[in-house]
Design a protein that fits this description.
alpha+beta, 5-stranded mixed sheet, 5 strands
Length: about 90
């Protein structure tokens, strides 16, 4: 079953390779979607099997080595049938 999660990650998440690392992790998990900077936060959409999406959300609570995540907000929604995973500007 495919699910969709819209995620906003707050804290020291810009300038620490968060978007690129998230894209690598999402692709490794076989997820579709995108990630981008949103103000001081990072915003992402992940679509795929629920266990893989949940693992990606767990990853977002830590992020890459130099990130300092303070908050992760998750909103579940209906999948849109996205394919591939990209970094948006």
């Amino acid at each position: 079953m495919t699910v969709r999660a819209h995620v906003v990650v707050s804290g020291r998440v810009q300038g620490v390779y968060f978007r690129a690392s998230a894209a690598e992790e999402a692709r490794a998990l076989g997820l579709a979607g995108w990630v981008r900077n949103a103000g001081d936060d990072v915003e992402a959409v992940f679509e795929g099997p629920r266990p893989a999406v949940e693992r990606m959300i767990e990853w977002c609570h830590t992020g890459p080595a130099h990130a300092s995540v303070e908050r992760v907000e998750v909103e579940w929604g209906e999948p849109e049938g996205l394919t591939g995973f990209g970094i948006r500007s």
